[in-house]
Specification:
By secondary structure, the protein is α+β, with helices and mostly antiparallel strands. 34% of the residues lie in helices and 20% in strands. The protein is built from twelve helices and eleven strands.
């Protein structure tokens, strides 16, 4: 099968087209996508492709693997039945008869016009693992535990244990205990704080808290204004994108993206900092091991997109993160990523690359000198 941005084979594209038609028929009551009102990433949340690209895929014409992946991920949000789980790229390329048996029509939710429902119980009273990058650590991601509560009095609260380099440092008590509220988390942190401060590997850990008055929920976003306690208070605001969940009317939440903004207050430094925060819900994702925070692929996923200098956390980004955390990869802290590579062959390739680079550099340097002689004929050569 083709890899990355390469096109699918003729037969794969044909199967993809037939299965896409079936998915559209399952999800849209009319059996068609409203082309006049089609907006990438909105009409089908997470499907950030143009109408012409979608049309090509539906006809079984040119389809790249990347496009097919996006289609599989986007329509996975509407699959609610059975034990199969999400739709994968391999599923989408199956023979249509087998695909329809694997994903019966009655296991899909339909898109209802202009309907947007936020089911906050999908997010509350759960524990999440979080991953993020900061300027002082470009080679590995920091990690966090995040709790979001809703009590029987109708009040929200949240807590976030940030600055974790290794989850093993804090699993006892923070993963081994099911906390009922932020006060219990606060008590546990106070019991551990002195120990954390004495060790270099845990000295960056801080507990951020937010009460009901600091939390705002809408169908698109959950905004949480966090603060630390103590004499040197830090402030951080979380903008949690839940738009795709509301649009696709999901019945569970595995994880998604948020934007975090740290102020320059407290013992943090002089910079106001904004960064992407990747979330995964432990209860839903059912992964014992966290992501490997030194894996280049994980770090790349945590790099936010920018457009014209503007940092973006959109539904396409949310869908990509969801796909990434559900791939069951990059969760080993000692990955054998290079186990099948011949060291001698690898070194020789590096040496050849260096030789080609040196040769090309000398060639371009001579060209620059020639051009300089043409532009400045009176200039004496050194």
């Amino acid at each position: 099968m083709a890899k990355n941005a390469a096109s699918l084979t003729k037969n794969e594209a044909k199967n993809c087209g037939a299965n896409l038609k079936y998915l559209i028929d399952c999800v849209f009551p009319s059996g068609t996508i409203p082309s006049k009102r089609y907006i990438p990433n909105e009409t089908i949340p997470g499907l950030n492709i143009s109408l012409s690209t979608l049309g090509n895929a539906r006809r079984g014409a040119y389809v790249s693997e990347d496009t097919a992946n996006k289609i599989a991920t986007a329509f996975s949000f509407y699959h609610i039945g059975g034990s199969v789980g999400k739709i994968t790229l391999e599923d989408l390329l199956m023979e249509p008869d087998n695909f329809q048996k694997r994903f019966p029509k009655d296991e899909f939710k339909t898109i209802k016009e202009k309907e947007k429902v936020t089911k906050l119980p999908l997010f509350t009273n759960k524990v999440y693992r979080g991953y993020y990058m900061l300027p002082n650590s470009s080679y590995k991601a920091y990690m966090a535990y995040f709790w979001f509560f809703f009590d029987d009095k109708g009040k929200y609260s949240a807590a976030m244990l940030r600055g974790i380099s290794d989850f093993n440092d804090v699993n006892s008590p923070f993963r081994n205990i099911k906390f009922e509220d932020i006060n219990a988390i606060k008590d546990s942190f106070h019991n551990c704080a002195d120990t954390y401060m004495r060790k270099k590997s845990t000295s960056s850990i801080h507990l951020y808290l937010a009460e009901d008055k600091n939390i705002r929920c809408s169908p698109n976003c959950i905004q949480i204004n966090f603060h630390t306690e103590g004499t040197s208070i830090r402030h951080s605001t979380m903008y949690w994108n839940i738009d795709i969940v509301a649009r696709s009317n999901q019945s569970s939440y595995a994880g998604g993206s948020a934007l975090m903004v740290d102020t320059n207050e407290g013992a943090r430094g002089k910079d106001i900092c904004a960064f992407k925060f990747g979330l995964e819900c432990e209860e839903t994702i059912k992964e014992e091991k966290p992501l490997n925070n030194t894996a280049p692929q994980v770090i790349a996923e945590l790099m936010p997109k920018t457009r014209n200098g503007i940092l973006l956390i959109d539904n396409a980004d949310d869908a990509n993160w969801y796909r990434f955390i559900t791939e069951k990869a990059f969760r080993d802290n000692t990955p054998n990523a290079f186990g099948s590579i011949d060291p001698y062959d690898f070194i020789m390739k590096l040496a050849n690359l260096e030789n080609r680079y040196t040769s090309k550099y000398e060639e371009l340097n001579d060209l620059v000198k020639q051009l300089d002689g043409i532009i400045n004929p009176d200039k004496k050569s050194e």
